[in-house]
Amino acid sequence: MNGWILAATVVLAGGLGAALWGVAGGPLRRRVVAQNLSTAVACPGLLLLSQGYSRPSYVDLALLLAILGPVGTLVFARPLADELAGDPPRAWGLTWAAAGLGAVVVLVLCAATGPSRAMVKLLVVGALLIGGNVIASRALSGGFQAVRLG
């Protein structure tokens, strides 16, 4: 086991454990935030595993997850908008922590890979991951007028 795989294990165990706890029960607002958190943690975990196992195909999985994860959260936010309006999620601290984790992982991996097409792909994954999760969190908290009005 090298340092990349150890870091991926820590990220996945900690983040997905917290997401599983959030999804397992409690109010609706906690469950939808936990669903969004699972994507925000699994994507950096895949990037770290990609470096640890020297498998560039894992970066493609992370790219797909960075695109589809926030979209899935927005799909859930639309039909649940009325229920979330009364008690909207307040997870900005968690959102920025997950975004910070994604940014740190992407920057460290960019430094490890050096200038190449792989680094550009990592930067794209990082931008999609951070931007998508911030937008999804804002939509869940009722920050977009279109989500509230339908």
Features:
0% strand, mainly alpha, elongated, 150 residues
Condensed summary:
With 150 residues, the chain is mainly α.
Strand-and-helix sequence, N→C? Answer: HHHHHHH
β-strand percent reads under 5%
- pLDDT below 50 for ≥5 consecutive residues: which ranges? none
Question: What is the overall shape?
Answer: elongated
Number of helices: 7
Taking the sheet with the most strands, its summary is:
none
- Mean pLDDT, to the nearest integer, reads 86
The separation of the N and C termini measures 50 Å
- CA radius of gyration is 16 Å
- The number of distinct β-strands equals 0
Whole-number total of structural domains = 1
Output the structural class: mainly alpha
Helix content: over 70%
Topology, element by element:
Layout: H1 3-24, H2 28-53, H3 57-77, H4 81-86, H5 92-113, H6 117-140, H7 145-149
Helix pairs in contact: 1-2, 2-3, 2-5, 2-6, 3-6, 5-6
